[in-house]
Design a protein that fits this description.
This protein has about 220 residues and is mostly helical. The protein folds into 2 domains: about 5-20 and about 145-215, Orthogonal Bundle (Endonuclease Iii, domain 2), CATH 1.10.1670; about 25-135, Endonuclease III, domain 1 (Orthogonal Bundle), CATH 1.10.340.30. It has 12 helices and no strands. Helix 2 (about 25-35) runs antiparallel to helix 9, helix 5 crosses helix 6 and helix 10 (about 145-155) packs across helix 12. The longest helix has 19 residues, at about 80-100. The mean pLDDT is about 95. The protein binds a DNA duplex (13 and 12 nucleotides) through helix 2, helix 3, helix 6, helix 9 and helix 10.
Length: about 220
DNA sequence: GACCAGGCACATC
DNA sequence: GATGTGCATGGT
């Protein structure tokens, strides 16, 4: 017996309300943020993006033209800064060389082809690619992250050993393609993850507690 | 001071 | 194919 996906969404939305993820920012800023947030808290990503904006570098060509060491230094607060400078540069090379530096052109490509192109970039994995598709290109690609995996596994909706594609399909096979819904759902999962489903169990007051049959606890195995 | 954060690629067995 | 490791800053 497991809880249903629509119950999960309803409970999270009722509890936390709309999350307003990545509103009012440029698509390019979303792309940069998607790379910088890899295994990193958003507060540190925020600092790095602010520094880039301050330097007037939130533009594909401008950032691509910048020396790699200088880019690394600017994004330092986001951690793994030398690695991420290279990854950003790899992604910018795609944007510039394949799409002439135009995000509009890049986003006019069909979703499966664009996803494949993004995944071909060294440093862009499935979560980063899907974040770009959903939050920058506004295409209905569900984003899976550590919290999504952990929350679903702990509540018996998937196996603890489920891989990225299985979890993504779990959502996409159930919820019809809907950019706004996918956006909100993922943001809500991260929100409840921050509050209650970290590595160490922190379940007090978790709005998902009562969803399990008989109010049984989740199984915080990882 | 230890532990954690909106991953990913690569080495090794 | 599975498992382990490097990458790094800043908050709790």
């Amino acid at each position: 017996m497991t809880i249903r996906i629509d119950q999960l969404y309803a409970r999270l939305f009722d509890h936390f309300g709309p999350q307003h993820w990545w509103p009012g920012q440029s698509p390019f800023e979303v792309i940069v943020g998607a790379v910088l947030t890899q295994n990193t808290s958003w507060i540190n990503v925020r600092r790095a993006i602010d520094r880039l904006r301050e330097a007037d570098l939130l533009d594909p060509q401008a950032m691509y033209d910048l020396d790699l060491d200088e880019l690394a230094e600017l994004i330092r607060p986001a951690g793994y800064y030398r690695l991420k400078a290279r990854r950003l540069n790899n992604l910018l090379a795609l944007v510039i060389e394949q799409y002439g530096g135009s995000l509009e052109r890049m986003f006019s490509v069909d979703m499966p082809s664009l996803r494949e192109a993004l995944l071909s970039v060294n440093g862009v994995g499935p979560q980063t690619a899907d974040s770009i598709l959903l939050y920058a290109a506004e295409m209905p690609s569900f984003v899976v992250d550590t919290y999504t995996h952990r929350i679903l596994a702990r509540h018996g909706m998937i196996g603890f050993d489920a891989d990225y594609h299985q979890i993504k399909s779990f959502f996409e096979d159930t919820i019809e393609p809907d950019v706004a819904r996918y956006n909100e759902f993922h943001a809500l999962l991260v929100r409840v993850g921050h509050a209650h489903c970290r590595r160490k169990p922190k379940c007090d007051g978790c709005p998902l507690e009562a969803l399990l049959p008989g109010g049984e606890p989740c199984t915080p195995d990882f």
